Amino acid sequence: MSLKQIILDVSELEAPYPLIEASHAIKDLKDDEELIFIHRMFPHKLKAVLEKFECKSEILKDEENYFEIKITRIL
């Protein structure tokens, strides 16, 4: 099954806006979608949001000042 990709690039936003934007996107994420979250660092508070909305994450890229994280619902 191919999931619909939603890209959320918050790399230009200042705290706390990346986490706020991610929270809204994760809350609205459907079972057939995956969120590609792009940021300049790994937001550690994101783990609590993922748990709250029963999602899992996979780091796709981990480079200096660039993180790309795939987020999907736990089915």
Q: Brief overview, please?
A:
By secondary structure, this protein is α+β, with helices and mostly antiparallel strands. The protein has two helices and four strands, in the order βαβαββ.
Biggest sheet statistics: 4 strands, mixed
Percent range for β-strand residues: 35-45%
CATH class equals Alpha Beta
CATH architecture: 2-Layer Sandwich
The amount of helix comes to: 10-25%
Rg on CA atoms, Å: 11 Å
Task: Please give the order of strands in the largest beta sheet.
Answer: 1-2-4-3
Mean pLDDT: 95
Return the CATH topology. Answer: Translation Initiation Factor IF3
- Domain count, please report it: 1
> Span between N and C termini?
13 Å
| SS content category | alpha+beta
The count of helical stretches stands at 2
Fourth CATH level, the homologous superfamily: TusA-like domain
Q: How many strand elements?
A: 4
Query: Uncertain regions: pLDDT < 50 for 5+ in a row?
Result: none
Q: Judging from the principal axes of the Cα atoms, what is the shape?
A: globular
Describe this structure in words.
- The chain contains two helices and four strands; from the N terminus they run βαβαββ.
- The protein is an alpha+beta fold.
- The chain has a single domain, classed as Translation Initiation Factor IF3 (2-Layer Sandwich), CATH 3.30.110.40.
- It has a four-stranded mixed beta sheet with strand order 1-2-4-3, with helices on one face.
- Helix 1 (17-27) links the parallel strand 1 and strand 2 (33-39).
- The chain is globular, with a radius of gyration of 11 Å.
- 13% of the residues are buried.
